[in-house]
Amino acid sequence: MATELKKFLDAKKTTTRLLGDVERHLMRRPLDDRRQDVLHPSEIIKPDWCHRYSYHLLTGGEANRTKPNLRLQNIFDEGHYIHAKWQSRFQAMNVLYGKFECLACQVMTIGISPACKDCGRKDVMEYREVTLVDDNLRIAGHTDGWIKDIGDDCLIEIKSIGAGTLRFEAPDILADAGGDMTKAFNNIRRPFRSHLLQGQMYLELAHRMYGAEAPKEIVLVRE
Question: Whole-prediction pTM value?
Answer without folding.
Answer: 0.84
